[in-house]
Amino acid sequence: MPLGTLDRTPPPFFKQGPSALSKLTVLSAVAIALMVVDARFKLADPVRSGVATVIYPLQWLVMQPVKAAELVSHYFTGLQAAQNKQTEATEALARQAMRAAQVELLALENQRLRELLDIQQRLTTPSQGAQVLYDAGDPYTRKIVIDRGTTQGIQAGAPVLDGHGVLGQVTRAYPLTAEVTLLTDRSQAISVLNTRTGARSLAYGAPGAESGGLELRFIATHADIEVGDLLSTSGVDGVYPSGLPVGRVTRVERENSAAFARIEAEPVARPLAALHVLVLQLPPPTERPVPAPAKPATGGKR
Description:
This protein is α+β, with helices and mostly antiparallel strands. The chain has helices at 20-41, 45-113; strands at residues 127-135, 143-146, 159-161, 166-173, 178-182, 189-194, 200-206, 213-220, 230-233, 245-253, 260-267, 276-280. The protein folds into 2 domains: 27-116; 128-280, Thrombin, subunit H (Beta Barrel), CATH 2.40.10.340. The protein is rod-shaped, with a radius of gyration of 42 Å. Mean pLDDT is 79; it is low at 112-123, 287-291 and 297-302.
């Protein structure tokens, strides 16, 4: 075969057609025409309705995990908010109950002292709420542990109240927790005042009963004390503010052969049922002036 008859041009690998610019122009014109027709005659509305109806089950199925996640998130957020409000409401209720319990004591005290002294209005002792975590593990003591410590300003020796009266005293303070010894512990003693007679005495813990009690020692047999007398803090110890309810006298035994009467009292507070407590701030230590040293008397020599 002659060489001149062979086609020396390479065969095309792709099918030749309109150029890309031509395709862009035609498709753009078609798109603009469709948009104009749809905007004027609403021809695509039935198509849209049909497509939306067909794909709605798929959309619903895809949205279910998202809605479930939102519901779970809202549930936990609402639960946390409800718990915070419950804690705030419980602390506020404890403060209101404490103020209501002090009304009777303040009324009796004002009735007796208003004629004698012009008493300055009492200032509210700063306090903070705390929650009882658990009872101490030692079965021979009456102690509880609260969720506040030195980080929150709790100090050893601070008085602790519940919604009814004096509960105990902080004996050990840790960074995040504190140990409260209840009044019913045998190692605790508190200075109390009989609101009926005004007599002061010491109440010691008597953990013999199921919930524990108090015992007034060194009270004379002929002392004026009766069952039902209300005992409050006297304030002479410098730790407990005066006028806080402590307990009520439940038993008075007098024997002619004994020098002292046997007196038992029941705490006003509820040691076994306390869930939220109030920790009072310790009063600042009083600064006692140091007396100047006495100068030796100088006398002339003869």
